[in-house]
Amino acid sequence: MKHNVKITIILLTMFIVTQFIGLAVLHADIFYIEQEINGTLQQVSNPQLSWIQPPEVETSEDSFSIFSSLLIAFIIAIVLLFLLTKFKISFVLKAWFFVVVCIALFLTIYAFEVLVPFPIDPTLALIIPIVIALPLAFIKIFKRNFLIHNFTELLIYPGIATVFVPILIWKTAPYLFLKPLFIIILLILISIYDIWAVWHSGFMQKMAKYQINNLKVFSGFFVPYVSKKMRLKLKKMRSLAKKTKSKLKDKKIRVNIAILGGGDIIFPIITAGVMLRTFGLASALFVIAGATIGLSYLFFFAEKKKFYPAMPFITAGIFTGMILSYILKHFSVI
Questions:
Q1: Which terminus of the chain has a lower count of CB atoms within 10 Å, N or C?
Q2: DSSP, residue by residue, 47-76
Q3: Strands (DSSP E) found in 20-73
Q4: At 104, phi and psi to the nearest 5?
Q5: Residue 41 burial by CB count (10 A; 0-12/13-18/19+): exposed, middle or buried?
């Protein structure tokens, strides 16, 4: 087991909680509102979010064009991240993270406002997320608070997913089962990239170390902990210090770090969102269950002090969940 049981359960719990927050945020469907037109209620684009509205897809050509653009954008983002990390241009990376975190938190909090059982004034609906998102993002990026970091991580990925889910549904697919095709392709590509970045190039480890040690920002869950052996050693040191009336300030304490990257969290949310809007809640839950089982397998069977790409395990779990949901839906079980 890579980490002790307690830390593993904490990581898995945060992962699952984020997935369900993602489902709630996607259910809110913040980019559309109901408006009365000619005496009937119709869904129209939300003018308050026009600045980040996903592109409308009308034909299959539009779908493939947008998906291709998305893949190119991912490649450019990875290259930029590599260059900024290599040349240690920390202020640009921090600014980048700050903007992304602000937008993602804004979208998630806005979705919560849609879900509450009472109306909120449109102006307040914009002000409240801004007032909450800005200080949280500032503390996360520039002050490095452990609790704020992990709390915001629970909210960031659902917000990002709201933008990508509509793009990754092939709305004009000739057959219903082909609608998740784009996310399936993306999961395969990301898994291959993850294997290369962790086991072959070592880029993922270098980037994580740079973020944690130099940038003081990490995109993903971050749980520092002390091993049982070190806790016993620390207890003895404190006891000795108390007897000799000395201080521990010059003593070195080894702290372990349990991490789960942001990509390993967001892609299951996006996949569950695609399945939610295509096949319904049960299919989305199968995806979350499969992703959780895949991640659990990795955590429980991984060796200490070794790095593993999480996405291949998560993707295998997701695909298993998707196949099971297809089979059960075909036989009208769900």
A1: N
A2: GGGGGGPPPP--SHHHHHHHHHHHHHHHHH
A3: 32-37, 40-45
A4: -65, -45
A5: exposed
Per-residue tokens: 296: 């659990």
Smallest Cα–Cα separation from 24: which of 316, 285, 294, 199? 285
DSSP state of 213: I
The model's pLDDT over 35-77, given as tens digits with 9 standing for 90+, comes to: 877 778 888 999 999 999 998 888 889 999 999 999 999 999 8
Token digits of residue 18: 């984020």
Query: Tokens for 55?
Result: 């592109």
pLDDT digits (tens, 9 = 90+) for 73-82: 999 988 988 8
- Find, among 101, 96, 70, 76, the residue nearest to 166 by Cα: 70
Place of tokens 């102006």: 123
Output the pTM of the full model.
0.92
Mean pLDDT, to the nearest integer, of 274-288? 97
DSSP code for 202: -
Token pair recorded at residue 135 = 């200080």
